[in-house]
Amino acid sequence: MNVVVIGSGPGGYVAAIRCAQLGMKTTLVEKYNTLGGTCLNVGCIPSKALLDSSEHYYNATHTFSEHGIEAKELKPNIGQMIRRKEGVIKSNADGINYLMKKNKI
To answer: Looking at the chain, which terminus has fewer C-beta neighbours within 10 angstroms, N or C?
Structure first.
């Protein structure tokens, strides 16, 4: 092993890819079950996904009528919002996994 990168967040996985591209045998260590670090797994990305769903709900209940769209008796489906958030995390983590395999990390 030439390089061990600790953490697969935005800095870690990019550093690991670059090391592999430069011909170094590279290992990436991550404490979470999925790659992506804190930002992807429990931080920035999950919170932004939920905020996005909340913004859509707000717009549907507060601004659609200005555009002639009547949306009465809307209610948020928290379970679906959480499933969407999990899907966003999985999609991004799958992308990082693909890059690791492609670069033999």
So the answer is: N
